[in-house]
Amino acid sequence: QVQLVESGGGLVQAGGSLRLSCAASGSIFRINAMGWYRQAPGKQRELVADIGSGGSTNYADSAKGRFTISRDNAKNTVYLQMNSLKPEDTAVYYCNVQGEFYYSGRHPLLDAYWGQGTQVTVSS
């Protein structure tokens, strides 16, 4: 089993900052990509940013220049620093971890996990 624990969401005024964290634990062999997605009411879940095992990053256009994704491989943790927040950033933010995990067999298997979600609300 693998657990993802998210933290850092909350209520902030427009122009403010928040830092999200997502720590993975459990039967982990190797984590490959880690990412953050968000889902606003009535909308589909969308990618905000992701980061590969080597540190390569990818951002949604809406996040470029304002958000920074990073990871600490020793802690199996991914972060999302969000600056200059706007009301349209209001959503539930989910972390996603892709990698190889141990189950009942001897060899690790490719799989992906989602965090429980953390609410980010930006007031105008």
What does this structure look like?
It is a single chain. This protein has 124 residues and is mostly beta strands. The termini are far apart. It has strands at residues 2-7, 10-13, 18-26, 28-39, 46-51, 57-59, 67-72, 77-82, 91-101, 109-114, 118-123. The mean pLDDT is 96. Helices cover 0% and strands 60% of the residues. It is built from no helices and 11 strands. The strands form 2 sheets. Strands 2, 4, 5, 6, 9, 10 and 11 form a 7-stranded mixed beta sheet that branches. A 4-stranded antiparallel beta sheet has the order 1-3-8-7, with no helix packed on it.
The helix/strand class is mainly beta
Radius of gyration: 15 Å
Largest β sheet strand count, sense and barrel closure: 7 strands, mixed
User: Which stretches of 5+ consecutive residues score pLDDT under 50?
Assistant: none
Basic shape: elongated
Strand residue content? over 45%
Q: Helical proportion?
A: under 10%
Give helix and strand order, one letter per element, not per position: EEEEEEEEEEE
State the end-to-end distance: 40 Å
Number of DSSP helical runs: 0
State the total count of DSSP E strands: 11
What does the average pLDDT come to? 96
Short description:
This protein is mainly β. It has no helices and eleven strands.
Annotation keywords:
124 residues; seven-stranded mixed beta sheet; mainly beta; four-stranded antiparallel beta sheet; 60% strand
Summarize the topology:
Elements: E1 2-7, E2 10-13, E3 18-26, E4 28-39, E5 46-51, E6 57-59, E7 67-72, E8 77-82, E9 91-101, E10 109-114, E11 118-123
Parallel strand pairs: 2-11
Antiparallel strand pairs: 1-3, 3-8, 4-5, 4-9, 5-6, 7-8, 9-10, 9-11
